[in-house]
Amino acid sequence: MTDRPAAVPRPAAALPSTNRRMALLVIAMSQLMVVLDATIVNVALKDIRDALGFVSDSDLSWVVTGYTLTFGGFLLLGGKLADRFGRRGVFIAGATLFAIASLLGGLAESQGLLIASRLLQGLGGALMSPAALSLLTVVFPEGPERNRALGIFSGITAGGAALGLILGGLLTDYLSWRWVFFVNVPIAALAIVGALRYVPESKDETATGFDLPGALLVTGGLTSLVYGLVKLNDDAVGTGTKVATFVLAFVLLAAFVAVQLRVRNPLLPFRLFRSRTLLGADLGALLVGAGLFAMFFFVTLWMQVINDYSAIRAGLAFLPFAFVVGAGAGVSANLLGRIGPRPLLITGPALAALGMILLGLRLEPDSTYVGVLLPSLLLIAFGMGLSFVALTSAAVGGVGQQDAGIASALLNAGQQVGGALGLAILAAVSTARTESLFAGQPRGPQDLPVFYDALVTGWSAGFVVAAGFLAAAAVVAGALVTLSREQAAAALKEGAVAA
């Protein structure tokens, strides 16, 4: 069955230019909020751990993976709901849910409520983000004005992660970790009011269905899988429960595949994967996410738990990473039309893998930031910058123009899901390594140096496995992506906002 044709948006020229600028402000503000929340909590993790009594890194990782799981799992559904029921309405619903979830997270006095609020935040973000991008194409007519708006949207997406680390540090140090959640409430409220005032409603009149069961099955299956990985080293959880968790994950994911093959409007059209290039890009994005997300988690804990960095100092320590990612992306965009994406998709993840393995082999409790951490961060950052643009062009260029939207959304969802799975796997690996070195030993204040040494050794094991994920991304993308340089350059123009 062929996909339905893309909707023709309502002409935007009738909107006054002031209204278009205000609409762009509303949409950009909402996208910034969604992107920020993928990183803003990282530098607050130590304070959250202390306040709510998280014992293991595996359990603490849910504060990050809870958001990325539901965001990635429901992202494709969010786009289809926006097409079917109206983009502004779904955007407002997502912003409302995001605000409620953020308020609950800020008020949370238990680990369970905080994690539940992060799951809800991810769902709200999955409704907002695709609707916001669609609304941008409705508000701005095709041409230079739309291109400028899309450039702003892309810049916010690219820079929001770095801003999240800095803002998270400021809020945590000068107010409280709870404000990394509370700050979203007034921003979401302004976005809702602005959307009602300045953003026109639009929907795809040809949209006929959406796959809610598919979204629930895949997200439920992934959540069960992540839970099983997180509890793998927890002696308080019985073997039978662990096995049952993995069996449930397998059953739900198998049911998801069965539904996708039978439903009329599948969440994930498997026919897209007949394109080797798209398959290579999506698998590459999943593996890159798996290798990259845990690095922020573990490095932040090394800074704050082992070396007593303040939250703002930890956030600022990642600034060079953000700048070098941007520089790498610029180099990648310039080279794409000359050499095509395949060399970049081999070189980028390979450089990142080298940086990660060096981090795993060299990091110690008393390592210096400039001598050990920074060189690895810069290698990883430049490799990721080379990779992200090439992945986008490969995903969009690997399919026909009518499928470019779902291809870019699928790439984004794959990276988020990969990040959640990777963090769960690497947290399990690091916890197992730490416990093997420190099991049964006394844990009084006098034993902290020994415990810290075991903790960092565990994180180092995680970095080594992360390097394996990144190296696998280079192999997979190099083997499958066949897009020519001309096709890649054209695809980059079409998919410039896919990140």
Description:
The chain is built from 19 helices and no strands. The protein is mainly α. It has 3 domains: 1-209, Up-down Bundle (Growth Hormone, Chain: A), CATH 1.20.1250; 212-262; 271-499, Growth Hormone, Chain: A (Up-down Bundle), CATH 1.20.1250.20. Helix 6 runs antiparallel to helix 7, helix 7 runs antiparallel to helix 14 and helix 16 packs across helix 19 (485-494). The protein starts with 16 loop residues before the first helix and ends in a 5-residue tail after the last helix.
- Helix proportion: over 70%
Average per-residue pLDDT, rounded, comes to 81
Rounded to the nearest angstrom, the distance between the terminal CA atoms is: 28 Å
Give the C-alpha Rg.
Answer: 22 Å
CATH architecture of the largest domain: Up-down Bundle
Outline the biggest β-sheet: none
DSSP helical segment count = 19
Low-confidence stretches: 1-13, 495-499
Decide which structural class fits the backbone. Answer: mainly alpha
Condensed summary:
The chain has 499 residues and is an all-alpha fold. The protein is built from 19 helices and no strands. Helix 6 packs antiparallel against helix 7, helix 10 (212-230) packs parallel to helix 17 (404-438) and helix 14 (319-339) runs antiparallel to helix 15.
